[in-house]
Amino acid sequence: GAVRDVALLVAVGVSDEGHREVLAVEAAAGERSESWRGVLQGLVERGLRGVKLVISDDHEAIKHAVQVELSGAAWQRCTVHFQRNILAHVPQAETREVATDLKPIFQAARRQTAEQLAASFAERYGEVYPKAVATLTRGLDEALTYTAFPSSHHRLIRTTNGLERVFREVKRRTRVVGVFPS
To answer: Angle at the Cα of 51 (from 160 to 22), degrees rounded to 5?
Structure first.
């Protein structure tokens, strides 16, 4: 048969005690909203309850699926991906300096502090890098969802880094196989 690419949809859960668990790994034709809804419906059917927060990159299909299937759950935009999106509008030579001013916004424990840091970032770079500032302004709210949760959780819920580790492990183990027969 023909070799074709498929999207791997992965959901990892973290319990109240802080234990991570891979809840679903499903191959799909793409990262469409229906695909994500199917994954979430499957999890709910298997007994998933009480989801308080979903963390992902800024992907409309995931956001829509979460709104429909896990209504009541908050959504956190991965701050690492978000910062990359902002810095994409900054010349490479200036990236390090701008990143140094950007990072503290997403290390703030309090929303008010983060918003003040974002305002001074916008003031400093608004004229030089208007697209970077527009990107920050547009996505800030969804990137600060973590501030509504206990500060002891912030490090774990600001980003999808935990998921990236799962992906690295999957890649490492599948590299050995190379091509899957089905």
So the answer is: 50
Pair 49, 41: CB distance under 8 Å: no
**What is the C-alpha to C-alpha distance for residues 38 and 103, in angstroms, rounded to an integer?**
35
Q: Could you tell me which residues are beta bridge partners of residue 89?
A: none
Predicted confidence pLDDT, tens digits, the chain (182 residues): 666 677 788 898 888 777 888 899 888 877 788 899 999 999 999 999 999 999 998 988 999 999 999 989 999 999 999 999 999 999 999 999 999 999 999 999 999 999 999 999 999 999 999 999 999 999 999 999 999 999 988 988 899 888 887 778 777 877 776 665 54
Coil, helix or strand at residue 100: helix
Handedness of CA 158, 161, 164, 165 (dihedral sign): negative
The Cα–Cα gap between 48 and 142 comes to 24
Rounded to the nearest 10 degrees, the angle between the axes of helix 95-102 and helix 79-87 is 140
Q: Please list, in sequence order, all residues whose beta carbon lies within 8 angstroms of the beta carbon of residue 124, skipping any fewer than 6 positions away.
A: 101
Instruction: Please report, for residues 5, 16, 33, 45, 48, the alpha-carbon distance to residue 38 in angstroms, rounded to integers and kept in the order given.
Output: 19, 25, 9, 10, 13
pTM: 0.85
Place of tokens 């990262």: 31
Residues 114/94, Cβ–Cβ less than 8 Å: no
